[in-house]
Automatic annotation (TrEMBL):
Transmembrane regions: 12-31, 37-56, 61-81, 87-110
Keywords: Membrane, Transmembrane, Transmembrane helix
Domain of life: Bacteria
Protein name (record): Uncharacterized protein
């Protein structure tokens, strides 16, 4: 058996997800100072940031462990919560978007497996 790697290998979804995350976060950090935006972050905003990260992480964990309707409902809730948090508090954009992209790719991979 010849084990030479083929030249026509497709990029795995994880590589694509990491590339999208890198582009979005780098673009956000480059665009933010160019627009002259400054934000003062208070304790309430930090609470929303931490809650958003926790909810998205739990949704990702449930997506990997369970495959029921409850995991899908929690994932949809976490996705909507993340979008709302990004709209209300744009400073957490580079933190939440990678979690949302990972959540979408896990859902895509699990749906493709079935």
């Amino acid at each position: 058996m010849d084990k030479t790697p083929s030249c026509k290998r497709r990029a795995s979804p994880w590589v694509i997800a990491l590339f999208i995350i890198l582009l979005v976060v780098a673009g956000w950090y480059l665009l933010f100072p160019v627009l002259g935006l400054t934000l003062a972050v208070t304790a309430g905003v930090w609470g929303v940031i931490i809650a958003t990260i926790v909810v998205l992480s739990i949704a990702i964990l449930f997506f990997l462990v369970f495959s029921g309707v409850g995991a899908i409902i929690l994932a949809v809730f976490a996705f909507l919560w993340g979008l709302l948090a990004i709209i209300l508090f744009p400073i957490i954009f580079p933190v939440v978007v990678p979690l949302l992209i990972v959540l979408l790719f896990i859902g895509f991979l699990l749906r493709r497996k079935r």
